[in-house]
Amino acid sequence: RSVCQRIARPGVVRNTAVGFGAVAAGWLSPFPAVKADEGSCPPFTMSASKFDQSSYLGRLYAVFDKIDPRTLFTSDAELRRCQALLEEYSRTKAIPVGATDADMWEARKTVEAIIHPVTKEPMFVLGRMSAFVPMNAPICAIMLNAHSTLGVVFAQWLNQTYNVMNNYINRSSLDVDWPGLLTPYALAVTVSCSIA
User: Fold this and answer.
1) Does the structure show a pLDDT above 60 at 29?
2) Pick from 110, 124, 11, 107: which is nearest to 70 by CA?
3) What is the C-alpha to C-alpha distance for residues 97 and 22, in angstroms, rounded to an integer?
4) Which are the contacts of 164, defined by CB distance < 8 A and separation ≥ 6?
5) Could you tell me if 75 and 116 are in contact, meaning their C-beta atoms sit under 8 angstroms apart?
6) Burial class, 107, CB count within 10 angstroms (exposed 0-12 / middle 13-18 / buried 19+)
7) Nearest 10 degrees: CA dihedral of 92, 98, 100, 105?
8) What is the per-residue pLDDT across 155-192, written as a single tens digit (0 to 9) for each?
9) Is 51:58 a contact under the CB 8 Å cutoff?
10) Pairwise CA distance, residues 55 & 194, whole Å
11) CA angle (160 as vertex; 156, 166 as ends), nearest 5
12) C or N terminus of the chain, fewer CB within 10 Å?
């Protein structure tokens, strides 16, 4: 079968539409705690999460905040503005004049989504946690719709390669343990391709 014939099959179209629909619903749904206004926003701090980490819902909202794909579209000027707000707060231990708690939480979210906490450099855009859902949606669609052996192997390789890139970009140290990164990658690719 040609690629067009496979794409035109109802199951392929349905699976792909459901996957992209779920992603769109996740981006657009109004999570009240994530999109809190000033009245419901907790006092700003750099030492704790915006959300209550002792509750499941608080931890869930914290994850939604980390993977918010809107931060992928942050301009350099907006990033510098957010960094300046956080630097002034760190220096004075007070919210800058004209800023609110909500502004400060948004600035912290933006900086933490873009700037690596150890290297202090902007992270590669496709490897950020905020890119995890938009990157995985097409990868999952490819994996669900791969029918030939070559297609399945390519889809599994693509998935494992994206995973290792995401792990590398979001690493927690300056030093990279290349054998510790590449050995699991090689094993994951081998196992996923053999099972698939």
Assistant:
1) no
2) 110
3) 40
4) 181, 182, 184, 185, 188
5) no
6) buried
7) -60
8) 999 999 999 999 899 988 888 888 888 898 999 999 98
9) yes
10) 40
11) 145
12) N
Give the closest residue to 29 by CA, choosing from 37, 41, 21: 21
Enumerate residues 6+ apart whose C-beta is below 8 A from 75. Answer: none
Tokens read off for 2? 């040609």
Among the listed residues 99, 13, 113, the one whose alpha carbon sits nearest the alpha carbon of residue 68: 113
Q: At what angle do helices 149-169 and 132-145 cross, to 10 degrees?
A: 170
- pTM value surpassing 0.85: no
Identify which of 26, 22, 32, 29 has the alpha carbon closest to the alpha carbon of residue 58.
Answer: 32
Higher pLDDT, 31 or 124: 124
Tell me how far apart the alpha carbons of residues 141 and 12 are, in angstroms, rounded to a whole number: 9
